[in-house]
Write a structure and sequence with these properties.
The structure is a homodimer. By secondary structure, chain A is mainly α. Chain A has four helices and two strands, in the order αααββα. The N and C termini of chain A lie far apart (about 35 Å). Chain A binds a DNA duplex through helix 3.
DNA sequence: TTTTTTTACGACACACGTAACAATG
DNA sequence: CATTGTTACGTGTGTCGTAAAAAAA
């Protein structure tokens, strides 16, 4: 699991499709597909059900989403604080 | 910034040297050095002062450490919860 | 001089985009 | 058949460990 994986996952989750997630991520469908599969592999289970027009998150997907958002927010905050902190 | 970067940073921070961080990370000195430099580059400033026997974290380093620990804990918790969640 | 950190480097794995294919509705 | 997701594939970048150099103590 990487931060990029989470970013792609969030984009897919929020946009409701892999196609639309390509805009949010600035990438292409094959990469979105690949990232999500990565994540599903490393977490041991599907995050989305792909049998509907609008992507259906599984329970695992829903659980992950909340944490993923928090992690991303915390990383942004960490980056901000570190940049702000003076040297030495 | 990647999760691996944070893992290396935490190891260096807690062990007090790059050398000892190799044990915690299961890697070699050159990689620890490289990871920390990555992080310092992407965050725009030094995280450690390297002029003392025991690695001296800078203010930026100290700020980062707290967040890094929290992020890692949250990732572990996320992973645990997702694994526990039943399919579908 | 001993210990720690950095740099140089070759090898391998990862992540990208294009394009062809499959599946869904 | 129109749209979305996946697979195949070639290419470039990232990350690894070894080994040599530099810096610190």
């Amino acid at each position: 699991m990487t931060i990029e994986d989470l970013r792609y996952f969030i984009a897919a989750y929020e946009s409701g499709s892999f196609k639309s997630a390509t805009q949010a991520t600035g990438s292409v469908p094959s990469n979105v597909s690949w990232r999500i599969r990565n994540l599903e592999g490393s977490l041991g289970g599907k995050l989305f059900e792909r049998k509907h027009r609008r992507l259906q998150p599984t329970r695992k997907g829903m659980r992950l989403y909340g944490h993923a958002k928090t992690v991303m927010a915390m990383l942004a905050e960490a980056e901000r604080e570190v940049r702000l902190a003076r040297e030495v």
